[in-house]
Design a protein that fits this description.
The structure is a single chain. The chain is an alpha/beta fold and 266 residues long. It has a domain of 109 residues: Lambda Exonuclease, Chain A (Alpha-Beta Complex). The chain has nine helices and ten strands. The strands form three sheets. Strands 2, 5, 6, 7, 8 and 9 form a six-stranded mixed beta sheet that branches. A two-stranded antiparallel ribbon has the order 1-10.
Amino acid sequence: MTTITNTHSGIDHLSYSAVSTFQRCPLKWHFRYVDKLPDESIGSALAFGSAIHAGLECHFRQLLESGTRAELADLILAYDDCWQSYDTELLKYGRGEDAESLRELGEKMFIAFQEHDFSSTDGTIVGIEEPLRAEFIPGMPDLVARVDLAVQTGDELVVTDFKTSRSRWNPGQVAFQAEQLLLYSDLAGKVLGDRKIRLQFAVITKAKTPVLELHEVELDEARLDRTRAVFSQVWDAIQSGIVYPAPSQMNCWGCGYKKACQQWQG
């Protein structure tokens, strides 16, 4: 374990992802957010998820700008553009995966998306990849987020986060992931004013026959208060300047800083 002086210097905002990274492995957080080291490798799941998001963003942007649905070919083109933005030499594939098989899977997932009622939004699109920034806890840097989709439906603002998953989510998985959307609702309420907000995940499975399912998340002030307490403690830990590796099979397999971690001597 080591203390790095002024490790928090220059940090003017935090994100759910940054806090989650620190919780999993403080040293990885330091490499990414302080040293800003480039990834030594990139998990194909990360690139694939980003490419699917790009296709969905393409669909909703066209729906917003022209009122017409994008063609499947448009979604695949957006997928390809995003995929090619990654250094393919750094991509680390899972067992039985390669670029071609993932692209074929992506096409099937886009078809499942287009066949679902969710692709024909019932309401007015007011935000796509919408950035939010607001104070979450006094004395802590602002929290920033990017909302995948915000739709005004009647008197409700429906905030949707896109996810890809190997299998369908059960209620436990929805509850586990809910914290992220609760943060989004808090920020949206501060930025957009007093609106009724409904939260949901749109989950597309990476299965042989993909399906899209919507999972609503109930607003939970008690859990939001607990999240504030957790984030406050994490910020205190960041300010302490103490970082250390947290090795585990789950943390280390897809980590993009293996060499930097092995060379780290405290």
